[in-house]
Amino acid sequence: MAMLASPGCSDCEKGACVDPSLVIKAVAALSIIGLAAAAMLAAASRRFHVEVDPRVERVLSVLPGANCGACGNPSCFGAAEALAVGAIPVTACTAGGQAVADAIADVLGVEKCVVASILSLRHCGGGRAASRTFDYSGVLACDVVSRLAGGDLACPAGCFGYGDCARACPFDAITMDGRGLPVIDLDRCTGCEVCVRECPRGPIGLLAMASEFGAVAVRCNSHDKPRARKDYCSMCCIACKKCEKACPSDAIHVIDLLAVVDFDRCTACGMCVDVCPQECIDLTGRAAIAPATTLDGRGPKVEGFAPVIPKRVDGDESG
Question: Same structural domain for residues 123 and 263?
Answer without folding.
Answer: yes
